[in-house]
Amino acid sequence: MLQSRLGTLAKIVLSAGLVALVFYKVGFTQAVMKLKTASPFWITLALSMYISGAFVRAYRWKGLLNALGVKLNLGRLTWLYFIGFFFNQLVPTGIGGDAMRTYMLAKDGAGGTLAVNSVLVDRAAGLYSLLVMGTMVLMIRPDLASREVTVLLVGLTLGITIGAIVLIWGAKWINLERLPTFARNRFAKAFNKFYVSFGSYTWRSISRALLVSVFFNLLLILSNIFMAKAFGVEISIWYFFLFVPLISTSLILPSINGVGTREWAYVMLFGQVGVSESVALAMSLGVYGLNICMALIGGMLLVVQSFQRAPE
Fold first, then answer.
1. Which residues is 84 bridged to in the sheet?
2. CB distance 51 to 294 below 8 Å
3. Which residue, 2, 4, 16, is CA-closest to 257?
4. Average pLDDT by stretches of 10, the chain with 312 residues
5. Do 223 and 208 contact (CB within 8 A), yes or no?
């Protein structure tokens, strides 16, 4: 309990520190003034792309669950995704939405092991495909990025690829019988059960999840492009294919729901290609606003669910 509280406190301090640093560097007043100039038309398009992405992600999740033998329809999974957005903003951990999706899916009959497994693979498929897309753009247009951005993006992609291979293939040679008795009794059965469920995925189901992720990531990139247009930003769309993967990866860093790290990433990355710091900060705040809108939808669905059973 104490470690959890200390971890949350550290995230609060980091988020607050980054927010203070970015606003000090850019200027809070300037960012607010830029927000007032945003085009409602482009903001609406960005929001529509963002909302559409929830349905695509639910479709990806459904495919993974089907591979595990869990049958739930797209409506229910989309419902859970929106509620997950609500808890992402409510719980100061950054994974509150995933935890709630896992909990509610387990209650729907999937069981804890399969629920955890599907949510982890669902999240990993989205992030990995986004990094691969960014790396492929670098192969086509290496002139777009600085050396630092190139090394970071390619390094993350290769690192996750190698890590996934080691995890999948290396696990086959792990001998749990060699663990101390107390560890075997407490953890071996749970680990074995989790690994067996992971083995239920076929190459077809994983490939399908990655392909669906590409479509979702295109919607995510489009929402960022539309958000940029809302503030009059006119840069090559290829930059968004490079920067959005890095911004999404930055949200993994310890923070309160990505607050601070998101703003820092937008200012640092888009500032390299001629976007003023105040506009880049306004873009990040606009994207955060999209998350708030999704959370509000999820909150309303949660209220509805409290009065009646959600669609099956």
1. none
2. yes
3. 16
4. 54 62 67 85 95 93 88 89 84 68 84 83 86 85 80 85 72 54 56 65 84 92 95 91 85 67 86 88 90 89 74 50
5. no
Whether 253 and 11 have beta carbons less than 8 Å apart is answered as no
**H-helix or E-strand spanning residue 44:** helix 40-67
Burial of 91 per CB tally in 10 Å (0-12, 13-18, 19+): middle
The whole model's pTM is what? 0.81
Token pair belonging to 1: 């309990």
Q: How far apart are CA 23 and CA 225, in angstroms?
A: 23
Cα-based distances in Å from 236 to 175, 207, 241: 51, 29, 10
Cα angle for residues 210, 75, 225 (degrees, 5° grid)? 50
**In this structure, which amino acid lies at residue 108?**
D
Could you give phi then psi for residue 33, rounded to 5 degrees?
-65, -40
Sort residue 94 into left (φ over 0), alpha (ψ -120 to 50) or beta.
Answer: left
Per domain, the residue ranges of the chain are 2-307
The 10 Å Cβ neighbour count of residue 301 is: 19
Tell me the C-alpha distance between 59 and 41, whole Å.
28
Q: Is residue 60 classed as helix, strand or coil in its secondary structure?
A: helix
pLDDT at 310: 47
